[in-house]
UniProtKB/TrEMBL annotation, chain A:
<protein>
    <recommendedName>
        <fullName>ODP domain-containing protein</fullName>
    </recommendedName>
</protein>
<dbReference type="Pfam" id="PF19583">
    <property type="entry name" value="ODP"/>
</dbReference>
<dbReference type="InterPro" id="IPR045761">
    <property type="entry name" value="ODP_dom"/>
</dbReference>
<feature type="domain" description="ODP">
    <location>
        <begin position="42"/>
        <end position="255"/>
    </location>
</feature>
<dbReference type="InterPro" id="IPR036866">
    <property type="entry name" value="RibonucZ/Hydroxyglut_hydro"/>
</dbReference>
UniProtKB/TrEMBL annotation, chain B:
<dbReference type="InterPro" id="IPR045761">
    <property type="entry name" value="ODP_dom"/>
</dbReference>
<feature type="domain" description="ODP">
    <location>
        <begin position="38"/>
        <end position="246"/>
    </location>
</feature>
<dbReference type="Pfam" id="PF19583">
    <property type="entry name" value="ODP"/>
</dbReference>
<protein>
    <submittedName>
        <fullName>MBL fold metallo-hydrolase</fullName>
    </submittedName>
</protein>
<dbReference type="InterPro" id="IPR036866">
    <property type="entry name" value="RibonucZ/Hydroxyglut_hydro"/>
</dbReference>
Length: 290, 274
């Protein structure tokens, strides 16, 4: 596996930037080439530049640190990094935490910092536990709200929402890739190709109609427990959250930035339902429990 | 308290420390106070030594101290990771500085999200250029360097997880399952043995399980995780359960009690206990 950074950093809304890398599965027997090109998997970060403060979402992994570090510097353009918001304490999302704190001495870790005292001893003086619904004023109208994640990767998973741009940062939820990489009959190849890395969903060739079936692998891999549940209560929680925090942008950790969420999210939810438990519904519980 | 805890004489030692609970551990229900052991285990066989997980970074120096007391220096050391999460990998770099790690292993998987490959890139670990070995998909289910340690891929998990079973001591290394106990004091006994007061109730078990496996309340009634766990226990004689968190459960009476409670919960996780 190698990494690719093409197209990033990229501003996706005023003051909001898409950073990060793609894993490139070159000459990997698990993931065949498509049209002579290797397939990619996003590992994304996002930066919010308020007029007073800046905030980075997730840290990426060690293999991508050099690239991400350069991207952060490019986007900050001489400014300080003030806040680091890890969406959850999983390796791919938090492994560069100490590196970021070492490089940016003003930076403080914010959000759900349970577990971090165990995992990053020596950094606790740089951590501020913030409960769900805490708001961080970044200046210039940029306000970042910490939200409970209805779809969690780990118990300490959290989402974030920037109010002025209506951007939702949803960690491992709503991940998908471009269908042009799909190989018929092989459901493990739903990745995008090299020149599509930084495209948003409204820029993808073929549009959102081709998202069907191409998020299934990511969902099965990243949200394994979906296969055991009825996902409809989760969808209801998501819908309720969307009503209170309506997103114009949904920015996942894995997958393209979603600029048209009202079109895309239902398609991904249909994929979630397709990989979720299929042997019963909530109504069947009544029969079992009776 | 700071010494290794002998779980099976001469064969299995529990290593690690405890964490004071003040709503600072995400897999412990809110409001629970006391202390929770954070565990990794040293398994000493005739020809080899296997360290199952490496504990949390906050305990890395303690784990090294404990290993220095019990680690045979004339046998190669394998580190086997049950999960790539920080409560399993936190001590790896420190351990590598003090002990030559001959092999770093995890179970088999084809999952770009499982994070195991990235473990070798952690600061301190990268310096040794150690490679992570995986069981090949469809290949042996044994830990590669052991003749008695079996790996099991469970149905009940959050992130990619591998359980381990020691056929000699009949010890089940359950990773983040069965980690539902806490202690009242920092120096409390780290094992739960027959005759000890039972610290678990159906309510406390459900609370701990929902704190960790948040999706359980939305489970469908087909009961796959319950059936899978039943199969694991039916196919093996289990006399000790050694989890990543909480007390080590010892003795058939203790094991059966918590197994029964766990199955009851997994079969009806949406119901509050009667």
């Amino acid at each position: 596996m190698t990494i690719d950074t093409s197209g990033r950093p990229r501003q996706i809304a005023p003051g909001i930037h898409h950073l990060g890398i793609c894993h490139v599965y070159l000459n990997d027997v698990r993931f065949p080439m498509v049209g002579g090109k290797p397939i990619h998997l996003h590992l994304s970060n996002y930066m919010i530049l308020g007029t007073e403060k800046t905030l980075l979402i997730d840290t990426g992994e060690p293999a991508g640190w050099e690239a991400l570090s350069a991207q952060i510097d490019q986007v900050l353009n001489g400014r300080e990094l003030n806040y680091l918001f890890p969406t959850h304490p999983e390796f791919l999302h938090s492994a560069n935490l100490t590196r970021i704190l070492d490089k940016y001495p003003e930076c403080r870790v914010v959000g759900d910092v349970r577990d971090y005292e165990m995992y990053f001893p020596g950094c606790t003086d740089r951590m501020d536990a913030m409960p769900i619904r805490s708001e961080i004023d970044l200046g210039g109208g940029y306000e970042f709200v910490i939200l409970e994640a209805p779809i969690k990767d780990l118990p300490a998973s959290v989402w974030g929402y920037e109010k002025s741009q209506q951007a939702l940062f949803c960690a491992d939820a709503f991940s998908f890739a471009h269908i042009n990489a799909s190989v018929p009959g092989q459901d493990m190849t739903e990745y995008h190709l090299a020149d599509e890395c930084s495209l948003t969903t409204d820029e993808l060739p073929g549009g959102v109609g081709q998202i069907r079936d191409n998020s299934a692998f990511i969902l099965r891999a990243a949200l394994y427990w979906l296969r055991y549940i009825d996902p409809n209560p989760l969808f209801a929680k998501v819908e309720k959250l969307f009503q209170e925090f309506p997103p114009k942008i949904v920015a996942p950790a894995h997958g393209h930035v979603i600029i048209n969420p009202r079109e895309v999210v239902p398609i991904i939810e249909a994929e979630m339902e397709s990989v979720s438990g299929t042997s019963g519904t909530m109504a069947d519980r009544v029969k079992v429990s009776a | 308290m700071n010494d290794p805890t002998e779980i099976v004489p001469g064969r299995i030692y529990r290593l690690g420390g405890t964490v004071a609970l003040h709503d600072n551990v995400s897999w412990v229900p809110a409001g629970v106070r006391g202390y929770q052991p954070q565990n990794c285990y040293l398994v000493i066989e005739d020809e080899t030594v296997t360290l199952i997980d490496t504990g949390i970074a906050a305990h890395r120096d303690l784990i090294v101290e404990q290993m220095l007391k019990v680690m045979p220096r004339d046998k190669p050391l394998t580190v086997f990771l049950t999960r790539s999460e920080y409560d399993c990998i936190g001590g790896l770099a420190a351990i590598q500085q003090h002990f030559p790690v001959a092999h770093l292993l995890a179970g088999g998987s084809v999952n770009p999200f499982d994070g195991f490959a990235g473990v070798t890139e952690l600061e301190g670990t990268w310096d040794s250029r150690i490679q992570l070995g995986r069981n090949p998909v469809g290949g042996s289910s044994m830990v590669d360097t052991s003749k008695d340690l079996e790996t099991i891929t469970p149905a009940l998990r959050l992130l990619v997880t591998f359980w381990v079973y020691d056929r000699v001591s009949k010890t089940f290394f359950s990773s983040d399952l069965f980690g539902h106990t806490v202690t009242a004091t920092a120096d409390a006994k780290l094992t739960l043995d027959p005759g000890d007061p039972d610290p678990t109730t159906p309510e406390s078990l459900r609370a701990h399980m929902l704190a960790k496996f948040h999706w359980l309340a939305q489970s469908l009634p087909d009961g796959v995780p319950a059936r899978d766990l039943k199969t694991v226990f039916a196919d093996r004689e289990i006399e000790n359960i050694a989890p990543s968190h909480g007390l080590v459960l010892r003795g058939k009476e203790v094991i059966q009690r918590d197994f029964d409670r766990m199955i009851t919960l997994l079969e009806h996780p949406w119901e509050m206990p009667a």
